[in-house]
Every structure is written in C-alpha cells, then in structure tokens.
Amino acid sequence: HFSLPFVQEEESEEEPKLKYERLSNGVTEILQKDAASCMTVHDKFLALGTHYGKVYLLDVQGNITQKFDVSPVKINQISLDESGEHMGVCSEDGKVQVFGLYSGEEFHETFDCPIKIIAVHPHFVRSSCKQFVTGGKKLLLFERSWMNRWKSVVLHEGEGNIRSVKWRGHLIAWANNMGVKIFDIISKQRITNVPRDDISLRPDMYPCSLCWKDNVTLIIGWGTSVKICSVKERHASEMRDLPSRYVEIVSQFETEFYISGLAPLCDQLVVLSYVKEISEKTEKEYCARPRLDIIQPLSETCEEISSDALTVRGFQENECRDYHLEYSEGESLFYIVSPRDVVVAKERDQDDHIDWLLEKKKYEEALMAAEISQKNIKRHKILDIGLAYINHLVERGDYDIAARKCQKILGKNAALWEYEVYKFKEIGQLKAISPYLPRGDPVLKPLIYEMILHEFLESDYEGFATLIREWPGDLYNNSVIVQAVRDHLKKDSQNKTLLKTLAELYTYDKNYGNALEIYLTLRHKDVFQLIHKHNLFSSIKDKIVLLMDFDSEYLHKLFKRDHHKGQRYHEKQISLYAEYDRPNLLPFLRDSTHCPLEKALEICQQRNFVEETVYLLSRMGNSRSALKMIMEELHDVDKAIEFAKEQDDGELWEDLILYSIDKPPFITGLLNNIGTHVDPILLIHRIKEGMEIPNLRDSLVKILQDYNLQILLREGCKKILVADSLSLLKKMHRTQMKGVLVDEENICESCLSPILPSDAAKPFSVVVFHCRHMFHKECLPMPSMNSAAQFCNICSAKNRGPGSAILEMKK
Predict the structure, then answer these.
(1) pLDDT tens digit sequence for 542-582
(2) Cellular component terms, GO, for this chain's entry (predicted)?
(3) Helices (H), strands (E): how many in the chain?
(4) In 3-state terms, the chain is what percent helix, strand and coil (to 5)?
C-alpha cells in the first residue's frame, strides 16, 4: 500500500466518497517487466492479463497465486464464470482458451485473426450451460454438444471488429463499429440495436464500455455519451413477428470527458474518464490524469456527486483504450487498470469518515460520529478522539471549553483526570478546570483538590470561598487548608471573605466554638443557622443582646417561618412592632393566635393606632365600637361599609345608617353600596327633605339597576329550579313505572306470610307500594270514605312519602 494516489481538483470542504490504494505486492513485480492489458474480478480473486501473453491469478492484496503462459502476444480479454472455476482467455494472435481452474476440461482454438473479446456463460459450471462467445471480425457462439464436441454459430458479422462484450443471465450485449446489440440466448433472437452517436471517433482508440447493472439494465458508455437501457417484455398483442423483448433507453446524457469504463454503485454510476487538456505554455494537447467520477443519472442529464483525478503511473503516455474499470459487486470495489498501474477504489467506511473529520480539525463531529458508530469503527477509539479534541482546544486557547469537555470525555477515569489536571497546571489554567472536577464518582487524590485550592487562595479569595462552599469537605485534607487560610490571615487579618471561609472550614471540622466566634466577630447572619443546626444555645446565653443587635429582624423571620415557634415572645413583639415596624404590626396581629389581645389593644390605643384598634375590637367581639371608631376617627364611609359587610350584622347596618343620615357624602356612599345587603328604602325614608346629596341621581339609578339585576337573577334561578324539578319529576315517574319483582321469597308486611300462595292455581290479589312494601289485599284496611287512595301502613307515618301510590297485581 502507499499514500493515496489521487489529487482532487481543488481544496474542498466536501468529504470524498471513495478511498484509493495501489494494488502492490505481486502486481508491482509484474508491471516492472510487463504491462497490464486487461483484468477481470471475482469475489475471491483477480485475473490479470499482460502485453506479453501472461495471465496471473492474484489474491485481493495483489499476491500471485497462479501463472499461465497463454501466448507470446497481448492478452485481449479474460472472462470468468460466476463460480470462479472456469476461465476464458483470448489474445491478439487469435488464440482462444477456455479451461477449468480446478478440472481438466478445456477448449483450445487458434483463429486466423485477432480475437478481441471472449465471454463464458455466467453458469458455465453447469453441464447445460457450456457456452461462450468470441469476437474478432464476427461474433461466434460456441456450445458443447452431447458428444462433448464444440459447435459454433455466427451471431453477427459484417459491421467491423467486435470490441466489447458482456454476458448477464440470458442476455449477451456486444459492441462493434456501428453500435451495440443485445442477443437473447433463450429465444435465439437479437432484440435491439443501439447506434453509436459520435461516428467521428475511431472505435479502436475510443472503445465502447458496457456493464450490466442487473439482469435487465445495460449501461453503455461510448465517447462522451452514456445511455442506460432497460430490457422489457413485449405485450403478447404487440408481438406479431417481433422479438418477445425490446429495449427502452431510460436515461441518456453527455459527459465532459471520454469514457474508459463504467460500473454501477447503487442507483449511481462510477465513470472512469480519459482526459486531454491544452497546455497553457505550449498550447498543445496532452494526456492529463484520468478521473474517477461518481454521478447521479437523470433522464436527460446527470449530477456530479464526486470527482477525483488519479495519479496513475505513466498516465502521460496512455490512451483512452489503455484504461479499464473493473468492479466487484459484492464489496463495492473498483479497479482502475492501466498498463503500468492498478489502483483500487473502495467506498469510505466510518473510520475513513472520522479520519477526514480529524484531518479537517472537526473534532466535535468526529467524536459524535465515533459515538454513534462505535460498534463499526475498527481503527479509532472514542477516548483517543476525545483526548485529541481536548488537546486541540487547549492549543487554540479555548481553555474553558476544553475543561468542560473533560467531563464527557474522561468520564470516571481518575488517572486521566489527574493527568489532565497536571497539563492544565503546566499552562497556568487550573482555574479553568476547577468547576468541572469530579466530586463523587470518581474521587481524585486529595493533592489534586488541594493544589487547585492553593491556586485560588493565592490569587482569588472569592473563587476560593466558592470552592469551599461547593466541594464536599472530604475531598481534601481540611487541616492543611485551614492552616493555609490562617497563614494568609496573618497578612490580612480583617479580610471578611477569608474569615467567613475559615468559619466554614471550622464548621466542617466540627470546631463549632471557633466558627461561632468568627461569625459573631463578623456579625454575620449565618450564626443563627449554625446555632440552630448544631444546637449551640448553651454557648450563646451571654450573647443574646449582641445577636439581637446585629439582626433586629431575627424574631420577625422566625415568626414568618413558623407562627407558633416563638409564641412566648409574641407579647414582646407587639411592643417591638409598634415601636420600630408598624407596617408589620397589623399582619402580625392577624396571623398570631398567641398574642394577648387586651395587651395589644392597650398598646394600640395608647399610640392611637386606629386600624389596629379597629381590628382588635372586632376580633374581641366589640363590633359596634369598632364601627364607631371607623366613622369618627377615620371618616371613611367605604371602610365602614366594608366592615359592616364583613360582620354581616343588621344592628351594625342600623348604626351606620343613623350615623350617616346627616352627612350627605356618607349617604352617597351608602346609596351606592347598600342595595345588595339592606333594603335601600330604609335609608331613603330617613333622608330629610331639602337635603342636598352629591350624585343622588346616579346613586338612585344604581339602586334601580341593582334591584333589576336581583329580579333577573331570581327569575333565572326560578327557571333553573323549575327545569330541574320537572326533570327530577320525570325521572321519578319513569322509576315508579318500572315493574317490581314479586316472588315466593317476599312476605306480606301485615300477616308476615308468603306473599304468593302455595297453590298458584287459586286466584289472589297483591298490593305493591312504590316503597316496595307488599300486602295481601285482604290484609290492608279499607280506604276511608273521603279518599279512595290506599297508603302503605308502614310508610304512612312518614307523611305518605314513598308509598303514596300503589301498584295492584291481580290474578
């Protein structure tokens, strides 16, 4: 193998579709002394013909496994059957040989003209398929008869030399100077003639290329023209004297260069092209590198998928006829054959795709491709790609991204983590990797974490404090870090960040006394959490005033968290709220169930806190005093009305009306709001004649609207009630109309004997009430003279409810 023998036309960001390697080993040795003239490919081996008349069998690595001296002159074509057990060879001196590679059967013949082509039947191994065709000036079909003799039939002649042939299934396709023909070996009929387009080209210099895509699709390449032909069955009604099959050209297009070979690749085509270019210096035509293109055929044109220029040995001296394209269908291998070189092209696999991505420094995509196809890749490892990606990011200066990728790439490999941390230390980027270090599974050596903490301690106190808060204390040696912090405090003893961090380190080390002392020195609120969490109340008996001094909101926060926890301080809190924080006093009075109401009322009255006093009076049941205070102290009719609504007490509404009757603004407020709670007439009758009331008309209109709304609501409710009543009545009626089962298990509720007689032949009468109680008719009392209706004796005490009607069953 050697470095890739192709040169793309220009630097492209598109990934190539094929990869190339030169067929070496024995092939290199052969082509140093001889030149390749033809080759054919089997899934198991290769057969190479040379200009000196030799045929070599090669393995897929190019090693020689067998050699045949066929002729002293050029081998024109080699043909293998599908089994790979029989081979046909023809040469320029007219020799034709067909023989078994593993058996003694063979055919030898020498003709009086060069034989250009040979094709053995694809199933030659079968006794019924001992056939082959040869082509020189005419196309001959040879067939072995029942006496093991070979007989020949001329299939075609008279149109120049036969230069190309391909046999697939029951169809033989060949090309002569005039065009391409197809022969059906079963019907013994020639079914088509596809004429050559460009008759100006010499057919010996620009030979036709044929290949079968499948049993009915033939691809023809000649000059710069490509035709895709489909063999189809002719309908019985169209036959007459015509062949049973016909050919339809389904696609036809031109290519940029001369075609030397064709091969199918799924629904695409691989085309080997012979290229001639004009020299810019001499303005003369010269032979350029051949091209291997992958194209997508369309009906009248094609789309180029990829194009590679191949640097084959001796391309400067080669002609179009010197190149051949052979392929292995099973493995999508393509062999570019030239006199001095054989190059193998194959589809790129996932490893090749990753190679290209890495070459283009697309590490993220390479890593993703490897993860998706990890079962199929052979040469690459996900970890190696990931490490290369990290190195690339570091070289580019993207330290934070590189550190973040470590989490995914390094995973739980502690050794790799430690290796990467030291790499980051060498480039002075320990801070970049610190947020992403594993903290649980795995856990690195304590020295790694301590190294990073020391790095922060030297340059970033805030970052150091953040790590101490975020990292579990068992990751590093706590005493080492405590000593390092104390050493730094010797230089800067008042640094609050370091002091708070030291307190946290002491807390983790269960040295609560030192931690508490630091918090108290800093007057930091975290001291309360420390006290509660670790039950340090005995340590703060003499520090209560100090604690209250630097956190005056302590009791308030405690109450907000739990209304019952500090209940013994609620009386004290009333005075504190009244003195320092009145906005929170009323919410406290509403939420607290433990504060002494008399004490609270006394404090509020002393300070003339009207709203708080009103609330306390109402809560203590003195609503009339509370309402009077609203009206006399606050002069707020809306608040008074709202208070009366909340209490929903008729006497309060009366007090409110009496107080408001000589105050026009109060009357307006009452008229606007009283309608839904008290009859407005009570207020209107008491208004003195001649009193001017602001917005009286609007207030009266609102009263009428409210009244009208109440009427509408009542009517709507009435309609709903009637509809519901009717629906329920119908339901009850349907239920009562249903039959009631009466059998021998039922008894008369009066005489307690079975309801049905033992002798069913005797006539009897039974009365069944809707309450499901049953009686013999004779056991029921006679109905009164005033009413003919009968009622259940048992249920009549219940106001003649469920048994108010009866069902009578008679027989």
Answers:
(1) 555 455 555 555 655 555 555 555 556 566 777 777 777 77
(2) clathrin-coated vesicle; cytosol; early endosome membrane; Golgi apparatus; HOPS complex; late endosome membrane; lysosomal membrane
(3) 25, 34
(4) 40, 25, 35
Residues 62 and 98 in one domain: yes
Q: Are residues 754 and 662 in the same domain?
A: no
- Of 300, 194, 313, 319, the C-alpha closest to 254 is 300
Answer whether residue 635 shows pLDDT above 80.
no
Distance separating alpha carbons of residues 766 and 776, to the nearest angstrom: 5
Residue 155 located in a structural domain: yes
Backbone φ/ψ region at 697: left (φ over 0), alpha (ψ -120 to 50), beta: alpha
Backbone φ/ψ region at 635: left (φ over 0), alpha (ψ -120 to 50), beta: left
pTM of model > 0.70:
no
Q: Is the pLDDT of residue 430 over 70?
A: yes
Quote the number of domains for the chain.
4
Domain containing residue 375: 349-442
Specify the CATH number for the domain of residue 368.
1.25.40
In terms of Cα–Cα distance, which of 216, 217, 306, 315 is closest to 260?
A: 315
- The average pLDDT across 349-369 equals 90
pLDDT band at 785; cut points 50, 70, 90: low
Cα–Cα dist 231/216, whole Å: 5
Quick one: which of 262, 331, 322, 324 has its CA closest to 294?
262
CB 432 within 8 A of CB 421: no
User: Based on C-alpha coordinates, what's the Rg of the chain?
Assistant: 54
DSSP-derived pairing of the beta strands 765-769 and 341-347: unpaired
Whether residues 688 and 775 share a domain: the answer is no
CA angle 684, 686, 690 (to 5 degrees): 85
* Helix or strand run (H / E) with residue 711: helix 696-737
Q: 286-295, 510-519, 799-808: which has the minimum mean pLDDT?
A: 799-808
On whether both 747 and 716 belong to a single domain, the answer is no
- In a domain? residue 494: no
